[in-house]
Design a protein that fits this description.
Number of helices: 19
Structural class: mainly alpha
Order of helices and strands: HHHHHHHHHHHHHHHHHHH
Largest sheet: none
Helix content: over 70%
Radius of gyration: 21 Å
Length: 464
Amino acid sequence: MRATLEAGGKEARAQLPLLLACSFAASFAQSMMNIALPQVADEFGVTLSTANWLVTGYMVVAATSIALAAFLLRRLGLRTVFFIGCGALALGSGLALFAPNFWVLLAGRLVQAVCTGLFYSAVTSFIMANSDPARRGTHLALNSGTVAAGLAVSPVVSGLVLTGFGRHALFALPLALAVLLLAVGFFRLREVGPRGTGAVDPLSVVLGLGALVYGLGEVFRDPLPSLAVLAAGVAVLGLFAWRQLVLKDPLLNLRPLGNLGFAVGELLVMLGMMASFSLSILLPLYYEGALGFSAFLAGALLAGPVLANALSDVVGGRLLDRWGIWPLVPCGFALTALGLAVVALAAGRPLLALVVLASAVAYVGLGLVVAPSKTTALSQLPPSLYAHASSINSAFIQIASAIGSSLFVGVLSADVLAGTSRGLARAAAYDAGLAHTMEIAIGIAAASLLVSLAYAYRLRRRRG
């Protein structure tokens, strides 16, 4: 009989705190460079969009690692996947710690990303397989809150280290965290559940990564070449999806997407993550580029709103367990759209306190969106598809984050370059760029509100 976290699953319960620590490490490593992009761009003489590959490239590799995670969990087991993830975090952090140039720094970030991809998928799969359905929303929200806490702590701590000790010292933090997790996991982590069999398809790995690189990496450069590259990326992505459907043992089982309830729920998760990155990437760039703040102060201003997001993640999970998705998720998107609109208005004045407060409102709204949409989407499926659906969910989150990062930083970078070439001061160019990008984010949130209303109403009628 399968053990659950609540009933008789002592071995399963013992793993949860350690795995939540893995989620924290994964989110900390993922967001640690958000605060450093302006300094990296200046240090190496690259544009913001090039420096942003430290974020976008990370998510591309993380998404590919997520696709591999289901196979690795099935074939090697949780304990081995844990050591691979921690080893990647340690190796990538060590490489970036001593990086002499931008390209070595980028290589270190790409190795780090393997940790995030494996841990996000592994922890979600573990919770889905070992939680009682009545408490699953709370446990997934607890994991989402842990991830959000990592996202909140990372900019503050990273900004402090970056301001006081420089870029190289920044990577000592995830390196130490990886070593600590390895030591604890060696003694505490045990296998939960049987191992399976199967083989990985190397071509699928190449196609998945290639599609993301082609589809996202060049789209905001010169228009005509970018459109050609984007078309090629869409074609490769279609080939990747076709191959998964015809393979007997696919890298990423896409069968759950045939369930409309799951597919629409995942769309809402992706839209929420795109809106989230309009804040977590753009606000530090605004604080540092337009207002001239240090990395530490920019991170500190971001910490409160992100912590509010972590708290609303947990609250959203509890509300979902009690009342369901209606009207929780539509209200979340409405709050997000309102917060983004006020950020856009206040940043142009500038009214710093109002920017921080409005960003907190938007983050609270996102906390009521992402975890409940994810839980609702996964709950539309039979238990046999949970592992595959968890991998799809984690991969889609990274894809949406990469799209959001590329979109918003690409637009902002282009606006800043255009503004400064017209003679605008750098701060004024950042102000104009932020207003433009926030308009796009508001449009995404408004469209998401309409989709969520239709989705929540449909599920409510089906239950009634």
